[in-house]
Specification:
single chain, about 210 residues, alpha/beta, Ribosomal Protein L4, Chain: A, 2 domains
């Protein structure tokens, strides 16, 4: 199974073999779903909070005597029934972390990469490097390989300063490390741009 490799001008310079165990497997949509839910859950901070009647300031003294006033009994002015009182069953800080087995994480990424390859949304370049920090140069680069105005995920082995600076002002262009890219980021892109070195890294990481 081969895929064309283009240069920065959009011309095909060679073809390389793709690992069939990564880019041509049976797609497991249920595993992909579990991986995305795990990643999104792990992003939640869980810092939501409220004060119950014991945490609200004041209310230590009984507001009036138990009997004889002809009104309802009251033990504290911080009762949930009162204005300024505590909250009943309010949100409390807790974690939302959800662990995912490593094998399932790898299988989910393989499934997404297979789908992207089948949909022709995987683009391989001989190298992804920018000679300058100008945004206009990066726009010209995107137009030359016909991905301008598409939500693009660029996967690299190491972050290059020129590439980051030239692309950071462009909407819907994201750069991530090929070793740690999430399933959600792979799914949430119209085009995945990667170089030959990144393809080899995928073969090692997802083996």
């Amino acid at each position: 199974m081969k895929i064309d490799v283009q240069n920065s001008s959009g011309k095909v310079v060679e073809s390389i073999n793709l690992d069939v165990n990564i880019f041509n497997i049976e797609i497991k949509s249920s595993v992909v779903r579990q991986a995305v839910l795990s990643e999104l859950s792990n992003l939640r901070q869980g810092t939501h909070s409220s004060k119950n009647r014991s945490a609200v300031r004041g209310g230590g003294k009984k507001p009036w005597k138990q009997k004889g006033r002809g009104v309802a009994r009251a033990g504290t002015i911080r009762s949930p029934l009162w204005k300024g009182g505590g909250v009943v069953f309010g949100p409390e800080p807790h974690g939302y972390s959800k662990k995912l087995p490593k094998k399932m994480s790898k299988l989910a990424r393989k499934s997404v990469l297979t789908q992207k390859f089948q949909d022709k949304e995987l683009l391989v370049l001989d190298s992804i490097k920018m000679g300058s920090k100008k945004t206009s140069d990066f726009i010209s680069f995107m137009k030359s390989i016909d991905i301008f105005n598409k939500k693009t995920l660029i996967l690299v082995d190491s972050f290059e300063e020129n590439l980051i600076l030239s692309s950071r002002n462009i909407r819907n262009v994201f750069i991530d490390n090929v070793k740690s890219v999430s399933v959600y980021d792979l799914l949430d892109s119209e085009v995945i741009l990667i170089d030959k070195a990144g393809i080899n890294t995928f073969s090692k990481v997802l083996a």
